[in-house]
Amino acid sequence: MIVDVANALVLLCNFVVVPAIAYGSQLALGALGITLVFGVLRFANFSHGDLMALGTMVTILATWQLRRWGVGAGPLPTALLALPFGALVAVVASLAVDRSVFRFYRVRRSGPVVLTVVSVGVMFVMNGVVRFVIGPDDRSFADGARYLMTAGEFKRMTGLDEGLAIRSSQVLTVFVAVASVATLFWFLQRTRMGKSMRAYADNEDLALLSGVDPDRVVLVTWTITAVLATVAGTLYGLDKSFQPFTYLQLLLPMFAAAIVGGIGQPLGAIAGGFLVAFSEVAITYAYKKFLRYLLPEHLHPDGLVQLLSTDYKFSVSFAILVAVLLWRPTGLFRGRVL
Amino acid sequence: MSERARAVGGFAIVAVLLVAVGFGRSWSVSLAVFNLCLISAVMSLGVNIQWGYAGLFNAGVMAFAALGGLAGVLVSRPPVWAAVAAGGGGLLWAAVAACLTLALVRVAFRRLPPGRWRLLGVTAAVVAGFFATRAFFDPAVEAIEAVDPSTSGYLGGLGLPIVLSWAVGGVFAAAVAWVVGRVALGLRSDYLAIATLGISEIVIAVLKNEDWLARGVKNVTGLDRPVPYELDLQQAVWFRDLVAALNAGRLSALDAAERAAALHGLAIEAAGIFVKLCYAGLFAAVLLVVLLLSERALRSPWGRMMRAIRDNEAAAEALGKDVVRRHRQVFVLGSAVVGIAGAMLVTLDGQFTPSAYNPLRFTFLIWVMVIVGGSGNNLGAVLGGFVIWFVWIEAEPAGLWLVGALTSAMAPDDPVRAYLVASAAHMRPILMGTILLLVMRFSPRGMVPETVRR
Fold this sequence. Notes:
Chain A is mainly alpha-helical. Chain A has 14 helices and two strands, in the order ααααβαβααααααααα.
């Protein structure tokens, strides 16, 4: 009996908990960027997904080049060494885009919809550039040790029927995400620049009166956003695989995460990322085997016991979004009402 | 320049370009582009109603076009009685169960005191209703999809003329737009953008995966046509006589045997052009009706009210206008027009392929049309539809030509050249994005700006 319960729990960990933690960290990093732009620059940035794709693309190219030179990171993926290059290019690109596109509308104080429409134009261009440089196909760039623990090892270790596989990319994702978020929070809470950013997001006029330099705030916001986007995109690419189009589709879960958490609330974005990821994985997982371990023989289910097929995972983000809009428009962490 | 002069000039340029394609490549190609220009113009009018009249950002145009396409299948295909017999009843019960669930959720929401009990009650109703619906739905779907899966495996449609589906497509799109509008309107405009982005992904996912509805990714091909088939035309006596009469000069110089062969060739070419002309006539009629209605609406007191709401929501609200309600109305109307265009597109293609709907082509391209043409101006939106579709369709040959010319000095087997030629297709989004950004920056009112009437 206890063995059955243990098997069921291991099964759930292997197929729901571990993947959802990794996916949630990736979403959280992406949603942080969206919520920062929402909070400081005050518009929904549709080009965020393609900024992720751009940073990841440069990371992939740098990875290939490093491997050609014979540089590697031992058991860790080479992409970790290439990440700074990707982040640098993404930062330069988003600053250039801000200078040439967004600034004009900011200075004129155009409405947020205008900025959103403009960000669609930026999305188009970035999407085209990425597809032009690296092509629309799937690119795999993971290397190093693939598993920290394989299912077989786990079975041998515990003697259970079910295995728990932990991929190194999943552990890496969590570590990198925690490190990035810790740095971000230290920056926002402790440094002078972080404080002026929060002040600017909170009340623009008051911050300007207090001598906050708006150009610097915007510059730092884009820098952080681009670095986070590159990290999130690279981790997602290592965990799954890189395809330009999937990054466009990540936009919806990331928006959902940012809104669920409360616009302009970094903590909320993280909570939202995990909420979206866990709901998505839990609702699209087939519980047949899980229930077989727990239920007596005559109650065994015939079907897959899957709430929704994986093709409908976007509807989970959407449903969460709608629920928040209906019940608590400020989000879980009492962000700004839009 | 006045509004009219700019519009006339713009349309004249498009006409010259189309005629140039007609002479340079072939009239068949030129007419094919023209037909899609007409459909794009209708779609662009729909988006203009939302963005131009009311400033609503609909990021899910694709979904409404696809719903129109679905109407094309459901109206025109003959019913598959075996599938209806196998699973129709089950689907009906599933629908009843779903409606009961919704009613139960509503009652739970209304009657229970807010707080923990309401949350619990609503959740229980949703979960129970979900499983009850699935209990009827799953076996029914399995039964339907098992009926001759390689050729049908779906319920079929009503077997009515496909032209009817244009109206039905509008109704489908309007119904979904009403639901989306109920949820997302009334908050800041960004929320509508995100919500519509979400609904568009869901609609496409449903169309791809629910095989019982319209065969999913197996596609429905060979849809009915509202116009004659080329083969029938070639054999029709009146058509051959017409072709012979039109080409009398050229044919009279030939002897009898040669004349028959030449006439046959001419008839094949003429049949293709005739069919495309028929489509063009139908689409142009729809475009004109939609354009006239939009124009009348824009000039009416209703149109003035919409512009007032767009330009100053707070002031309009203070004057007693129900902003949210008007927004919902205009959102539904615009989506319906997009749905009509979507049904027209499927009619022209003769097939419904859910995997063909992607946001760049079906959402954001339409946006570029409206903004480039002139948001808030119906003629501008139509012109934008024409111009941008022409640029979009000709960008690929032009890009290939450009790459070819630039790399002509390289060796033909140079990998860089091969790479550039292969990547030329991805220049399209870059070009479209650049056009959008340039127009937004330097000419935000578009080619034919909105005229301010007082």
